[in-house]
Amino acid sequence: MASLRLILALVAVAVASLSASGRGGNTGLSPGFYDLSCPQANGIIMSVLEKAIANDSRAAASLLRLHFHDCFVQGCDASVLLDGGASEKNSGPNKNSLRGFQVIDEMKAKLEHVCPHTVSCADILALAARDSVILSGGPHWEVALGRRDSRTANLTKANSDIPAPNSTVQALVAKFKRQGLHEQDLVALSGGHTIGVARCATFKQRLYNKADVTLERSYYNGLKTVCPKVGGDSNVSPLDFSSPRRFDNTYFKLLLEGRGLLTSDEVLLTGNVRKTVDLVKSYAENEALFFHHFAKSMVKMGRISPLLGAHGEIRNNCRKINS
Ligand code: HEM
Q1: Cα torsion for 246, 249, 250, 254, to the nearest 10°?
Q2: What separation in Å is there between the alpha carbon of 127 and the centre of ligand 1?
Q3: What separation in angstroms does the CA of 277 have from each of 188, 270, 274?
Q4: Please, which of 67, 120, 160, 260 could form a disulfide with 255 given CB 3.0 to 4.6 Å?
């Protein structure tokens, strides 16, 4: 009996150390990870963020998106922040599009000053995304911490794994499934488009290639003035034009009115997948349900393949690996 207990104990230790030492496990992350080593972490991140949003009201949206684009490419490991030729910043979905890098730099610099070599860039991204949602009026969730930073980036994966704005709903579902996320996560997380803007280049094909009948007429005509047939690719339009800085469920209400900006927004309602259609309607009716599901899905997304234990590193500078 005693030897059986000993074997079970050894197996438990082996499983725990395995899951805490590589990618993919969830067990190594915990909300209190910096409680002793850097209790100021969240306060520092929040104060830099408040200042950034006061200077640029779009900063909250940009930081929320940054965490998403980090997690979808080889996991939440801050690979998106690395500079250099093979940087994910040079991929199709990210180039001339991702923003917020200087805000992360400022957070990191302040954290290095107060608790050197302690808080990972990947955790900064996760906390900044959560705090951006809170400061925009959205839900709160507890962020499990302890992610480490990668020593590599993956430009090819950034091109292939981040969903495109002209995707079908089937393609969106497939890309989310690859990350362990399901239809409910897809619809709830797409609700992140309740804040921020998109460039004309990302929705032009809806206006001119062949008239998109799903777009409500006056909205369609308004978009054409922002996004001319030739040129104007960097002009922007809000993803939720009625409350672009407020995190609420208006995005879903607008989808029901044919006023969703991207094809990838629109197809959640018109793409013939029963589950996504039902969820769009439910979230449009019930903001509390949307908030609840959004928070749950952000926690899930934040747990995609973290680097744990001895894997990866705590970068000194989020833009480059430690030498
Ligand atoms: C479902 C698949 C998704 C697609 C196809 C998609 C696509 C896009 C595109 C094309 C833009 C505009 C980029 C530009 O014009 O430069 C954008 C912006 C944005 N996306 Fe998504 N997105 C998706 C999911 C998400 C998710 C899961 C989140 C976060 C939870 C998110 C948050 C945002 C935010 C906040 C912005 C505005 C950023 C800013 O104003 O700087 N998106 N998205």
Answers
A1: 150
A2: 18
A3: 12, 7, 5
A4: 260
- Better pLDDT: 272 or 26: 272
- At 71, list the tokens: 């997690």
Ordered by where they begin, the domains of the chain are 41-161 (1.10.520.10), 169-300 (1.10.420.10)
If 0-12 CB within 10 Å is exposed, 13-18 middle and 19+ buried, where does residue 101 land?
A: middle
Nearest ligand 1 atom to alpha carbon 298: 30
Query: Both tokens of residue 148?
Result: 């480490």
- DSSP, collapsed to helix, strand or coil, labels residue 199 as strand
Checking if the pLDDT of 18 tops 60, the result is: no
Q: Say if residues 274 and 169 touch (Cβ distance below 8 Å).
A: no
Q: 3-state DSSP call for residue 144?
A: coil
Residue with tokens 């030492």: 21
Written as one string, the DSSP assignment of 23-59 is SS-STT-BTTTTTTT-TTHHHHHHHHHHHHHHH-TTH
| Neighbouring C-alpha atoms within 13 Å toward the C-beta of 24 | 6
Q: Report the atom number in ligand 1 closest to the C-alpha of 202.
A: 10
Beta bridge partners of 199: 236
Q: What pLDDT does 173 receive?
A: 98
| End-to-end C-alpha distance for the chain, whole angstroms | 51
**In this structure, how many other beta carbons lie within 10 angstroms of the beta carbon of residue 142?**
11
- Catalogue the E-assigned strands of 140-283: 197-199, 236-238
Local structure of 261: helix, strand or coil: coil
By alpha-carbon position, which residue is closest to atom 36 of ligand 1? 196
Band of residue 92 on the pLDDT scale cut at 50, 70, 90: very high
Residue 237 is classified by DSSP as E
Nearest CA to ligand 1 atom 18: 198
Pair 76, 306: CB distance under 8 Å? yes
69 is catalytic: yes
